[in-house]
Please model this.
Amino acid sequence: MIELPAPLLGMLLLLVILTMFPQLLAILDRAANLLIQNLSLMFIPPSVGAFFLGAEIYRQFPSLLATIVLSTIAAIIVMAVLIRVLPDAPGSGPE
Amino acid sequence: MDWLIDVWQQISTSSWVIALSVIGFATGLWVYRRSGGNALLHPLLVGTPLVAGLLYFINMDFAIYYAGNGILNWLLGPTTVALAVPLARQMRQLPPLMITVTTTVLVGGFFATVFALAMASLFAVDPLVVLSLAAKSVTTPIAVGITEQIGGLVTLVVMVVLLTGIVGILVANKIFHSFAVRDERWQGLILGISAHAIGTAKAFEQSSRCGAFATLGMGLNGIWTAIFLPLVLPFFIH
Model:
């Protein structure tokens, strides 16, 4: 059994409700946008924690950075190739 | 009712140190806007070292600062739920392009995570660090939830997600050019899957259509990663 994080379950539930009752979107728009636009503020406390992790983790920083850079590039290349080979996705369509 | 008591405790331990977070955020946002939206000057990259510096300066323990920000941490939950609103708005784009969108999300989201796990294992990174970068391609509020679930460091994953987003938007255009991905719908989708909210913001700069597909890619990949990650983790963490 997969355990999804509770906030994600909440998001899925709201998504189902909003798909069934799209008229609710107009009511929730302002409150949702206020929260989403200020997301970066909520990430300040945990990201400050990145400066207090201890020497053990900082020693691994070069490997960590290499992993992030290489895996992100690799993933984008895989998707770019995929888009080109999928039948109903004319990647070179005039846009 | 235990959860309600937990919530109340988290909110009620909030204190004046929230002001430090607000100062860091406001300064970061100001610098970012003055720079005209340069990704390397993202509000978090500017604001975070500033707050860390202030904590050193006033000699405050990180644990005290973190606990004092209880309400900000708590708000992350409702904000994750709120992501359903922009996602629901874009779901109508889905039916005619169902196969392409779902295949790209399923394959792309899977490889974004598995590449990271494989490379981290290859570079012999500590298991705790591997757990903390597993959710790197997912939008931060969902990544925090996933990381808590699998036992990684929330304080590390936020930075990892941020760096992933910045790398993503720095390299994406060159890759789109090399592989002739010219349709902005697919550019947006790929940006949202690989570079989450930072990629989505970049996609909206290009056009609202590009941004709409980025929102779709980001939201669907968040759900998908939360589902498959616990299943693939045992192959990389022994």
